[in-house]
Amino acid sequence: MMPEMDGYETLQRLKADKALRHIPVIMISALNELDSVVRCIELGAEDYLPKPSDPTLLKARLGASLDKKRARDREQELAAALRAQNTEMAAWRKAQEADLAVAHTTQQAIVSSAPAHLRGWHVETIYKPLIQVGGDVYGWRELDHGWSVFWIADATGHGVAAALFTTLVALLFNQAISERQTAEGILTKVNQEFYSTLRGRAFMTACCAVVKTDGELSFAGAGHPALLIRRRDGTIETLSSRATMIGIYPALNIEPTVTALASGEAALLYSDGLYSSKENTGERSTAETLAKSFAQTGSSADFLPSLIAQRDQTSGDGFDDDVAAIALHRA
Q1: Based on the domain organization, do 69 and 197 belong to the same domain?
Q2: Residues 266 and 327 sit within 8 Å (Cβ to Cβ)
Q3: What is the spatial distance between Cα 171 and Cα 169, in angstroms, rounded to a whole number?
Q4: I need a surface site. Which of 126, 213, 273, 289 has the fewest CB within 10 A?
């Protein structure tokens, strides 16, 4: 027998001490009754051997217990490292969310200006980034003679980098519009400055439309989806881009397309996100799908919300890319 306290009490005190509770304990006792074994295990013993114990067996049990202890220690080290990593990731995520919030505010300030009040035209705009900040951007400016210019650009990526990228794009368009008055001239100037800045390390699609109060529309595109025109009889015409993407070459040869819109007709500039979704059938939407939707909903002013709602209804999972669009209705 042990003096002052027996093995059970010793085991209890060890397991109650935070500094000692992880030490593996093998109980050795002359008692070989089942009740004694169960009590030792319940108190936290790693193993139990009856007296007289065999040295070889004791050594094997000690080795096994130490191996388990090392495995538990390693598991606890990994768990502590994981907790530290999670704490670090939470702090990083919080910082990223703060950056995204600022980037979102910045980008919204760029694209949320009130639509133009152009005599003879009604203008609608919509902007839906996939996350807080997207790679699409659009804008408009008044020109001389009562004309106006509308443009859309679609760059790759999302997040803070996209916000900085679209800020650069908006700056380049505003500078180009200050110097040029034609759709092709503006895109040519944007490409020149864009390439000069990034030297072929980034690309984007873009389009530009100059409209006049008498209904004339001049369109130029660089790798961008075609402009859609809905005529009064419901037919859809397309004005395709005639140049490659912005940023590939230092100079672009851009040919504009000129048309005219009569009263009740509409033109739609958009990014490819407007048809970037899966239909309920599981097939990908296409530009032709968008054209059909435009034919059905584009006869009235303020049709963009209806168009978006229709695209949402026919899409199984909703849009999977940024969406930007400008609708120009001839009053």
Answers
A1: no
A2: yes
A3: 5
A4: 213
